[in-house]
Amino acid sequence: MQELITYLLQFGYLDVTQRELILSKARWKAIPKGAYFSEAGKISREIGYVTDGVFRICYYDKTGDGFTRYFVYENRFVVDMNSFRDELPSAEYIEAVTDCQVLAFSKEDFTELSNSIPGWHDIFFKITSYVLENKLRYTSNMLVQDAQTRYLHFLEHYPGLSNRVPLSMLASYLGITPSSLSRIRKSIR
Amino acid sequence: MQELITYLLQFGYLDVTQRELILSKARWKAIPKGAYFSEAGKISREIGYVTDGVFRICYYDKTGDGFTRYFVYENRFVVDMNSFRDELPSAEYIEAVTDCQVLAFSKEDFTELSNSIPGWHDIFFKITSYVLENKLRYTSNMLVQDAQTRYLHFLEHYPGLSNRVPLSMLASYLGITPSSLSRIRKSIR
DNA sequence: GGCGGCAATTGCCAAATGGCAAATAATGGT
DNA sequence: ACCATTATTTGCCATTTGGCAATTGCCGCC
């Protein structure tokens, strides 16, 4: 659980009492491979800090094909922020790609922490805007690159992740078909 | 200036005194076409509410080619949030694509508002996370669509904008070459 | 250990997009 | 209004990627 505190401290100061208060609210939660942490159409009532495993944020089109928008893995928060913040239905699914462990905070506990800890807001503002800005920059850049470049950047930027997620999910994240990704892999070997 | 208040009220409540305080801090600023509101490498010390004109957030590669990541136009805030928040160098340029007018707040005034107005933080947390989440969703979706679909979605989603920005900037936003966009336009007529 | 089902690879061909260069149109400055 | 410059369009062809189907590989289950 110390990892969570270390992560939070990157974004703002918390004294020992505050750290203990935070940890006292955290609840371990296991999400088995294939299960959802949050579902489209439902309100996301928990925010999770991933201690083990990989999630993907995804949606399904009318034909049932799933599209992976991005992956969330160890030492990152996972949540549909729009849904969690305003208690609105989620736009998409958060699915465990592997068996996952998270430290979960309910909306109520999160709000209480936000009332008890003056810097809480700031910390989450920083985390949210920093992470989203970076994801957005990364994703926009992908648009102007060819598929192989995108794949190589993925390998660099998320070392080890390519071996933890199915090729089909990675392909849809990269915006290409599984066949194309398979061919790109072959051409690199 | 009322537009700014109307915009803010979408994200949280502000009483009359607070509204007046906000407006008292706002400074009109004109940015002529081609000028920068914020530059890569420099600290973004102002946040602007666009009342007139179109900006693009962009960067340049080593060969000097400019890539447009997205456009910001009337009734939206424009800022490099990572730079403004933490006073770090910006990663990219904010360039006026047309002559622009903004209501600008300095970092100092913004901080003062944040100290005087209890809901200020919440409002900006909502705006930032909401806008970034949506942009990110929109951009990831573009990855899995073909160029013509992306262009048609752009026309739908940003009506009128295609006539206000040069084709070359729109092409790089869409992740295609100017020639390809020109051909797509032709094929639609 | 064998079977069934899903995931990944591969071949073949079609469609989409890029690269380059030339032609044309639009724009800004004087 | 004219010129110079830049933006856009277009043609031609190369490259990339997709679609589909068949094959192979992998993994869990009995």
Global shape of chain A:
globular
- H-E order of chain A: HHEEEEEEHEEHHHHH
Percent strand of chain A equals 15-25%
Strand segment tally of chain A? 8
Poorly predicted spans of chain A:
none
Strand order of the largest sheet of chain A: 1-8-3-6
Average the pLDDT over all residues of chain A and give the rounded result. 95
Most extensive chain interface and residues per partner = A-B, 31 and 31 residues
Work out the oligomeric state of the chains in this entry. Answer: homodimer
What's the end-to-end separation of chain A, in Å?
39 Å
Question: In CATH terms, what is the architecture of chain A?
Answer: Sandwich
CATH superfamily of chain A: Jelly Rolls
- What composes the largest sheet of chain A? 4 strands, antiparallel
CATH topology (fold) name of chain A = Jelly Rolls
Structural domain tally of chain A = 1
Which keywords apply here?
homodimer, 189 residues, alpha+beta, 8 helices, globular, DNA-binding
Topology:
Two copies of one chain form a homodimer.
Chain A: H1 2-9, H2 16-25, E1 27-31, E2 36-38, E3 46-52, E4 55-60, E5 66-72, E6 77-78, H3 81-86, E7 93-96, E8 100-106, H4 107-116, H5 120-143, H6 147-157, H7 167-174, H8 178-188
Antiparallel strand pairs in A: 1-8, 2-7, 3-6, 3-8, 4-5, 4-7
The structure holds a DNA duplex (30 and 30 nucleotides).
Q: Would you write up a description of this structure?
A:
Two copies of one chain form a homodimer. Chain A contains eight helices and eight strands; from the N terminus they run ααββββββαββααααα. Chain A has helices at residues 2-9, 16-25, 81-86, 107-116, 120-143, 147-157, 167-174, 178-188, and strands spanning 27-31, 36-38, 46-52, 55-60, 66-72, 77-78, 93-96, 100-106. The first copy, chain A, has a four-stranded antiparallel sheet with strand order 1-8-3-6. The first copy, chain A, has a four-stranded antiparallel sheet with strand order 2-7-4-5. The model of chain A has no long low-confidence stretch (mean pLDDT 95). The first copy, chain A, has a single domain (2-144), classed as Sandwich (Jelly Rolls). Chain A is globular and about 55 Å long. In chain A, helix 2 runs antiparallel to helix 4 and helix 7 packs across helix 8 (178-188). With 189 residues, chain A is an alpha+beta fold. Chain A binds a DNA duplex (30 and 30 nucleotides) through residues 146-148, 166-168, 176-183, 185-186.
